[in-house]
Design goal:
The chain is of the alpha+beta class and about 80 residues long. It has two helices and four strands; from the N terminus they run E-H-E-E-H-E. Helix 1 packs antiparallel against helix 2. The radius of gyration is 12 Å and the shape is globular. The termini are far apart.
């Protein structure tokens, strides 16, 4: 397993319902993706999400199946919060 950060544009437009959140969780489990945490950029236009996954393609597949944007998927080996400022 590796760590990946996903950047999603237009974060302010994402308002998942409880049902949609449950479905995303199910899809992530099926694909082998585990969400760790998310945070918003200072301007609230981007969401950064940290996931544990077998590879970047698993992240993209989960996002596609859940109909969520995954504009950028980057594998990370070191977490430094200042890199996302």
């Amino acid at each position: 397993m590796a760590l990946f950060v996903i950047e999603r544009q237009f974060a302010e437009q994402l308002h998942p319902t409880p049902e949609a959140a449950r479905l995303v969780g199910e899809i992530n489990s099926e694909v082998g993706v585990h969400w760790l945490f998310s945070f918003l950029s200072a301007d609230k236009k981007k969401t950064y999400c940290l996931y544990e996954a077998p590879n970047a393609e698993a992240i993209r597949e989960a996002a596609r199946r859940a109909n969520l944007p995954a504009d950028v998927v980057v594998e990370v080996t070191e977490l430094r919060p200042e890199a996302f400022a």
